[in-house]
Amino acid sequence: MARHDVVIIGTGPAGLGTAFALLDSARPPSILMLDRNAFSSGGLRNDCKMNFTWPVGFPESSWDEATAVRYLARVEAFLKPEILERRNVSVYAGRAARLGAGLLEIRQAHLGTDGGLELIKSLVAELGRRGVEFGLGEAAHEVWPVVGASGGGDRFRISTPKREVSCRDLIVAPGRGGFAFLQGLMTSLGVPFVDNVVDIGLRVETREEHYPIVKDYYDPKFLFPQKVRTFCTNSRAAHVVQEKYEDTDGKPWYSVNGHSWSLSRPSNGLANFAFLRTITLTEPLASGQSYARMLGVQASLLGGGAPIVQRVGDFRLGKRSKAATMNGDLYDFEPTLVSATPGDISLACPSKILRALWRGLKSLDTIVPGVLHPSTLMYYPEIKLYANRPVFLDGSFLVQPGLRLIGDGAGTSRGITAAWASGLRAAEGILGENDGGARPLKAY
């Protein structure tokens, strides 16, 4: 059986951040990185939009401002982003304030999906040169603790379709796409966790001329009453995509997301953004994963196995969209997610959620007039799963001796930069434990 000092499950920014931090130590450990995909995955592949301002991306259950700012500086020093210019923010912020809303000012960088892929290539190549072994296309089928492990011995064994490996320290960073995998792992290992928060909403797509703020501020973060917000804006060469998720039984369901290419690609004149409401569940139904899956399956049923798309003009009239009404006259552009089914979102989205979203959109249309043009599209559902909240034992996200859970799937981050910072904290925990030193961490 092969062995490594550290095994990292997940090759997104959380896993990559852990690996680089471990390699920079005085005694670099041997590292194996596993990913069920045949390529390095995670948020760097998805538009590669990075935020460098607290509190964006940092759940306050795991971070305080001082800790986040300190680690953000390290992430920025490593990634060396080109921060985008913002203009006229005070104008939009003033309009928002008059409506009881807010606009966050955030230092942002954007590489685009193609730029993110190039960054991943260079990061993976650098790790390979420094001795990290990759098991791409190797899902971690089973993880079990080594009985009686003590001292400096290995504490975990992991089986993949190709091999079994053992390690002393295990980092699990599967991202939102591995939400169900992580839940199954925590259940099997007896790790207590809470899963009661989920974001439910729409992906809005429109012409840039109807949402001109993107010319001044690439990814504007508006906060509205009732826990409604904009998220993940894309423009210039933007498109909507369908994402596949799996529940704990391996059954698929779908959500939508937004991407854009870098500025090297020609613009299609479109913009898209998520419009989400945060839902906190209480007893007796306290599983955000189960609730999200139910909504995703219901939407897929009404959409014939695909997400639903509806024009704002049809929604205002209380009628479903149809393929015949998706172009011509006011409906002057075609959906970029061609697999979406024209339909009626109100049949699939719970009315309390939809009412809050629509109120927020009407406020947004006052702040940025034109976004609710009749041709604007609303795709449903857009669901964000980062609600696993394990019970952490320390600030390095330790849940059992030798086992640390990090990244969006584990609820320690909500984006690339915070995920990378989570990896830094996990690495410091490993190094501090193995060297007998203290962990310079505050929040957990």
Present the secondary structure layout.
Blueprint: E1 2-9, H1 13-23, E2 31-35, E3 49-51, H2 65-79, H3 89-98, E4 102-104, E5 108-110, H4 112-129, E6 133-136, E7 142-145, E8 156-159, E9 164-172, H5 179-189, E10 193-195, E11 197-207, E12 221-224, E13 228-235, E14 238-246, E15 252-260, E16 270-280, H6 288-302, E17 308-311, H7 312-317, E18 341-342, H8 351-367, E19 377-384, E20 388-390, E21 398-400, E22 403-405, H9 416-435
Parallel strand pairs: 1-2, 1-9, 2-6, 9-22, 17-18
Antiparallel strand pairs: 3-5, 4-12, 7-8, 8-9, 10-20, 11-16, 11-19, 12-13, 13-16, 14-15, 17-19, 21-22
Helix pairs in contact: 1-9, 2-9, 3-8
Please explain how this structure is put together.
The protein contains 9 helices and 22 strands. It is α+β, with helices and mostly antiparallel strands. The chain folds into 2 domains: 2-85 and 109-194 and 387-435, FAD/NAD(P)-binding domain (3-Layer(bba) Sandwich), CATH 3.50.50; 197-384, no CATH class. The strands form 5 sheets. Strands 1, 2, 6, 7, 8, 9, 21 and 22 form an 8-stranded mixed sheet that branches. Helix 1 (13-23) packs parallel to helix 9 (416-435) and helix 3 packs across helix 8 (351-367). The longest helix is centred in the C-terminal third of the chain and has 20 residues, at 416-435.
